[in-house]
Amino acid sequence: MTKPALTRVLVVDDDPVLSEVVGRYLTREGFEVDFAADGTSGLEKALRTLPDLVLLDVMLPGIDGLEVCRRLRQAAPIPVVMLTARGEENDRIAGLELGADDYVSKPFSPRELTARVKAVLRRAEGGVTFAGQTELHGGPMVIDVVAHEARRNGERVALTSKEYDLLAHLMAHPNRAFRRDELLESVWGWTYGDTATVTVHIRRLREKVEDDPSDPRHLLTVRGVGYRFQP
Q1: Is the pLDDT of residue 55 over 60?
Q2: Cα torsion for 132, 138, 140, 141, to the nearest 10°?
Q3: Among 129, 202, 132, 199, CA closest to 168
Q4: Residue 1 falls within a domain, yes or no?
Q5: Are 59 and 146 contained in the same domain?
Q6: CA distance 159 to 153
Q7: CA angle 24, 26, 30 (to 5 degrees)
Q8: Which of 76-90, 107-121, 132-146 has the lowest mean pLDDT?
Q9: What is the pLDDT of residue 203?
């Protein structure tokens, strides 16, 4: 009997000790791990081998991690987890705006990192599902659940997987206000994390689905609570 293929993770980091420790933990958890020590080789290897997930340090020789993330996002829908120095909020926000699925601040425990990798892979594989529903409608937006795409006034809207999941979740519960931590758990599968992740994704969604992102009509902020979708 043929063994199932292992889930492949590419670690792009110029710290050989950190890479070795992370690789050992991931291998122990059943992943196949590959490595790159700079942005240029990391991007080339990711595009050539198409791993299931990329662990990507922000500070890299050559092309930095943010630029690698941007180029990777343009080429392939591979989940990306950014590794950032603790306190570097601008890097974290920039990574999320470029389409990163999660970030982990250094120093981190390998067990925490492994758990976050598994959570991102679960979300990438399963997405948000809606039993018995093939389409969601709200205002000018239509979500085609079967095709996994969104249309605005009949025109397809290019969304990342997390943007799609977030919009679909809100549209499936029109006029209901969700706290940011509720959205983190429902859409990202995280029971903890920085709610700035949700804020960044809402901002990106508004830029794609609202006539005037600064004065949204559908993706509304509920002061002191979070967000809701108004058809």
Answers
A1: yes
A2: -40
A3: 129
A4: no
A5: no
A6: 15
A7: 110
A8: 76-90
A9: 92
| SS3 at position 164 | helix
Among residues 126, 157, 182, the one where a domain terminates is 126
d(CA 44, CA 24): 23
Q: Which of 36, 42, 7, 2 is nearest to 19 (CA)?
A: 36
Q: What does the alpha-carbon distance between residue 15 and residue 225 come to, in Å, rounded to a whole number?
A: 40
The span from the CA of 127 to the CA of 3, in Å, is 26
**How many other CB atoms are found less than 10 A from the CB of residue 10?**
22
Please report the pLDDT score of residue 3 as a whole number. 45
Rounded to whole angstroms, the Cα distance separating 121 from 115 reads 10
Per-residue confidence at 46, pLDDT binned at 50, 70, 90?
Answer: very high
Count of Cβ atoms closer than 10 Å to residue 62 Cβ? 14
Tell me the residue range of the domain where 140 lies.
135-229
Three-state SS for 207? helix
Helices (H), 105-187: 110-126, 161-171, 180-183
Whether the CB-CB separation of 79 and 46 falls below 8 Å is answered with no
